[in-house]
Amino acid sequence: MSSLNLSPTSTLIISTYNWPEALSLSLKSVLDQKILPTEVIIADDGSTTETKRVVDFFRNKFPIPLKHVWHQDKGFRLAEIRNKAINIASGEYIIQIDGDIILHPHFVSDHLRFAKPRSFVRASRIYIDEEQSKHMLNRGNSKINAWSRGVKNFFSAIRMPFLWRFFENNYKNKGEELYEIHGCNMAFWRKDAFAVNGYNQEFYGWGPEDKEFVARLLNKGLQKRFLKMGAIAFHIYHRESSRKFLAVNEKAFKETKEKKYIWCKKGITATSALERLEESLVLENA
Fold this sequence. Notes:
α2 (49-59) links the parallel β2 and β3. The strands form 2 sheets. Strands 3-2-1-4-8-6-9 form a 7-stranded mixed β-sheet, sandwiched between helices. Strands 5-10-7 form a 3-stranded mixed β-sheet. The chain contains 10 helices and 10 strands. It has one domain (10-284): Spore Coat Polysaccharide Biosynthesis Protein SpsA, Chain A (Alpha-Beta Complex). The chain is 36% helix and 17% strand. With 286 residues, the protein is an alpha/beta fold.
């Protein structure tokens, strides 16, 4: 394991909510990286103190800064907590995953090697079945590869850098597939996120806040590139989230595409203003 001493600097953002057992496996896999990011930020959408204990435990083990951004639990506010993490990130390049993701040892180095200006990256998500996921969680075991029991999409789990260029601009890159993204395995430049005001915080509840963010990046003129058979991320099984707000969110996503929006009204700038207000309130009550 080595620390990152290359350009660009990078921030690994890990979003989480009340699943400390999975987050622990994810953080173990971060420690196994061949090249570490400059820093790691846990974007916590209102978890209880058990998640904080996990972060504090790993902070003592990390040779790089491990930050914990948290806000009060007011329902599914993934867009907002991701914005808060992006806002405080020091890295030029943002690599984004979820707290139910276990990283291949070359995950960070692959993303950094693949990074190019004026583009953002989608990479694959490898599914671990329910039985194997429970086994790994119970044992606290983060070791997994393409040949492990319970890995579903085997071929996507094989790392083949010499094939990257064949998929980079041609794989799932037309029509509606152009907007398809895995928010649990993507990368983008921090300055580009600020150029479109980050995630749209009017998205409340599950989906598709990541697609809407991507739509504005595309409307801004950025290129989407696919990192296939690299930056491999294994997804721990869990039940699907509630789709209660999906119809409303889908409507907003469709509007962004059709009207070619670049900027969202309630994004990172709203987060910054809110944080300044919260800081002033803390000072007033100190």
